[in-house]
Structures
1.
Amino acid sequence: MVSSSIPTVDLSPFFNEGGDEHGRKEAIETITKACLEHGFFQIVNHGIPTDLMNKALQHSKTFFQYPPEEKLKSSPRPGEGACQLPIGYNIQPDHSVDKNEYFLVFQPGSSYNVYPENLPELRSVMEDLYPRFVGIGSLMESIINDCLGLPPNFLKEYNDERSWDFMAAFHYFPATESENNGITEHEDGNCITFVFQDEVGGLEVRKDGEWIPVVPEEGSIVVNVADFIQVMSNKKFNSATHRVVRSEGKSRYSYGFFYNLNWDKWVEPLPQFTTEIGEPPKYKRFQVREYQMMRMKNKQHPPARPEDEIGITYYAIDT
Ligand SMILES: O=C(O)CCC(=O)C(=O)O
Ligand SMILES: [Fe+2]
């Protein structure tokens, strides 16, 4: 298999009770380098069984192959509930540059979740997967805490509420001869993102102006640092620009888990990366809710030019 140029990190030292100090140090060095450069890496030996990941992809495929009217039964009706995220089944509107459909859930037990009644396997596999992703999310957060040299548990104590995380199954339609955009280039508006994809591939990350494919590797999970880590670290760590390109003649299936922040939180560059080292802040302080609402409005009513979509540069301070 062609190896991707995104670094792969072995997480087994973090599950080793005896404490493999050397292995942990090595992983922390690789992750730090990846976050300074691409903002992307893959993890292996992360504790989520490959079987479970494959099963999740299979069940999502079964669901996405249902006729539209069947899938729409798992979409909340407009005006129902107070959820501001597009929960359940959604397909990108025709005018969107993104060509995909997805199925989004909050943590198991959330009253917002809507699962297809005739496919209980999808619910059970997603509810099995979800807490495992939360576990990897908090492990990765503590690793990134160390990579940034923050006081022990700083990020954990700041990001202390898990009900704003979400997980989604994605289906990208086969490309046509004239058009192959799956998700247009963007940065993620959360803390840390985790993705696993089937063998079709199509996820690409931009580095030095070039698009680098994230080559699928069975059982591995792609990790990327997202906007809130970029802001808190005053752009020391990179929320990388990425996109999904569709393949001709082939559907692609993937899952994403978005480790997030409570929408009531305020985010700003930390003193460790500004005042304490004599650097001006590169971002204004902002509330997560405001940023998320602007991004969602963009998704529902995309601007005429995709480059006019709101991203984290909205809060950038010219230095
Ligand atoms: O499906 C993928 O590989 C990535 C999806 C993605 O970038 C996103 O939802 O933000
Ligand atoms: Fe993304």
2.
Amino acid sequence: MSKIKICGMQRAEDILAANKARPDFVGFIFADFDRHYITEKQAREFKSLLSSDIKSVGAFVDAPIDHVIKLLNDGVIDLAQLHGNEDEQYVRTVMEKTHKPVINATGVKKPEDINKVISSCSDFILLDAPGGCTGNTFDWNLIKEIHRPFFLAGGINVTNIESAINRFHPYSIDLSTGAETDGKKDPAKMMELVKLARKTG
Ligand SMILES: O=C(O)c1ccccc1NCC(=O)[C@H](O)[C@H](O)COP(=O)(O)O
């Protein structure tokens, strides 16, 4: 069964909505240029509110590696999602110093973008539309056989989540914009998306 991650938690009420909808993962964005950015203090508060059976994923874009390692080792996040140009040495160091799972993300415009991460030493790879949290899908025809667990992201919403799961059987769906109304997480959409993922997976 494909899991589901809802990214971009920004308010305590988003966490309470997640606790009701019960996705497998929620995402905290630590990229300070982004509208979903949250501080370490907020992330600590959100983690304390989050049900223990929902894992928290920290998304980073070329962050200082010590910050990623600290958040993992302090238990603020359970997995790290690397969305920038982090190289294999960076990925390996995070894994060795934390023994926590790492997701290596790539924005997909051409086949080479997938090739870039396909043999990464990370635990998971994540295929997304370039940029992150754009609400746009990328060309799914670029996905050929992938023999490792992967997250599928980019413009997934209530209209296409079922076809995404049926066509690719990803380890997990990952979405953000599709669970929002007017730029804020929408509890009804979160609930509906999780239901669709469970029904389809
Ligand atoms: O979510 C962000 O704002 C973000 C910013 C910078 C890098 C990555 C970011 N998000 C990564 C995610 O995991 C999103 O869920 C993914 O990009 C899909 O977003 P969407 O197309 O809005 O569903």
